[in-house]
Write a structure and sequence with these properties.
Elements: H1 2-21, E1 22-25, E2 30-33, H2 36-112, E3 125-130, E4 133-134, E5 138-142, E6 148-151, H3 153-164, E7 168-173, H4 179-184, E8 190-195, H5 199-202, E9 205-207, E10 216-221, E11 236-240, H6 244-250, E12 256-260, H7 263-271, E13 277-281, H8 282-291, E14 295-299, E15 308-312, H9 318-331, H10 333-339
Helix pairs in contact: 1-2, 3-9
């Protein structure tokens, strides 16, 4: 706007000068301007002045803004570089700390993997008796090629303890009632079987720390209702030979009891109506009901019944096994194994 105003003033003044100095020349029949050459020089000077003003105006308007923008951008760039540098440093420190922690953990694992030379398990394979009809604690999975794998909560616990001490496990399946006899005969080194350390058994065996308290259940046909032990009075009850379930069943007033080999057989007794109900482990009952229609269950409260590992008296494996088991109870490893097999209602 300033430039246009200057141009207008210049041409207005030039026009007044031309009017004042223009004279008609009769010889040529044209108007002539006095001092025309001077007038052209003045015009050229005015044009140069106008162009210079325009250039200065343009520079004066944009240069400060550009300089400020550039300064701000440079400052921002420098600040960003500093922040990026701090982030990279922090990231490097974090990675270094993580690497150190990983190294310490790996070193700790390596130390744990190296049991003492005098550890009785070190480099040996121990024979462990179990009753592989005791779902979900001990059972066998058969592969298509006929090979079998021992699975279950008790199986995983025993393997973990033995392997931490540098040994391996060979499981031997047998009826629950045969486990104690197999230990006494030296056929197995110790037994699983979810054995409860009652007074009678303690006379023959040494037991590990108690690691689980089960909940028993009454299983019966749909349409019947046996919510508790008192409701079984006068009924026929199936149980597994040699287990604490036998004591529970025989304690029901007026009940007829029948011993069966294994929990699956007890379930069949109820399904075939050869028994009104059976008493088995609650976690196992839950699994059996998934596979057998027409059955229901009543879960009983926890009692003094419990699980421990049975060893022969003066077993060389007892102390090392028990110490490792206690460590697993303290550091949470045992709870993780139990939780991987059972729902919350069965966990101590």
């Amino acid at each position: 706007m300033i430039i246009l105003h200057i141009y207008a003033m210049m041409f207005d003044e030039l026009h007044r000068d031309l009017e004042k100095k223009a004279r008609f020349n009769a010889a040529t029949g044209k108007y002539a301007v006095e001092g025309e050459e001077n007038m052209m020089k003045k015009l050229a000077l005015w044009l140069c002045a106008a162009m210079t003003a325009a250039a200065l105006s343009a520079c004066g308007g944009s240069a400060p803004e550009t300089t400020a923008a550039q300064t701000e951008a440079a400052a921002a760039g420098q600040e960003g570089s500093q922040e990026a540098g701090k982030e990279e440093t922090k990231k490097a420190e974090t990675e270094a700390d993580a690497a150190a922690d990983t190294k310490e953990a790996e070193e700790g694992k390596e130390e744990a993997k190296e049991p003492a030379a005098d550890n009785p398990f070190n480099g040996k394979t121990v024979k462990v008796g179990c009753s592989a009809t005791f779902v979900p604690f001990e059972s066998i999975e058969m592969a298509a090629d006929g090979s079998k794998t021992y699975v279950g909560m008790n199986i995983d616990i025993i393997k973990a303890v033995v392997e931490k001490n540098g040994g391996t496990v060979e499981f031997m399946d047998m009826p629950f009632k045969s486990l104690m006899a197999a230990i006494q005969a030296g056929q197995i080194d110790f037994c699983s079987g979810g054995m409860s350390p009652n007074e009678e058994r303690r006379q023959t065996l040494d037991f590990s720390e108690i690691f689980f308290y089960p909940r028993n259940a009454i299983v019966y046909r749909t349409g019947d209702s046996y919510p508790d032990l008192d409701s079984l009075k006068g009924k026929k009850i199936a149980y597994v030979f040699g287990t604490n379930y036998q004591q529970v069943a025989e304690g029901v007033e007026g009940a007829e009891t029948v011993g069966i080999q294994g929990s699956p057989a007890c379930i069949e007794e109820v399904k075939s109506k050869r028994a009104d109900a059976c008493i088995i482990d609650g976690a196992g009952a839950t699994e059996f009901l998934k596979q057998n229609e027409g059955l229901e269950m009543s879960l009983l409260d926890k009692t003094e019944d419990c699980f421990a590992i049975g060893f022969p008296k003066e077993s060389p494996y007892y102390e090392a096994f028990n110490n490792t088991l206690k460590e697993m109870m303290e550091n949470g490893e045992l709870d993780e194994i139990i939780a991987s097999h059972l729902s919350e209602q069965f966990i101590l």
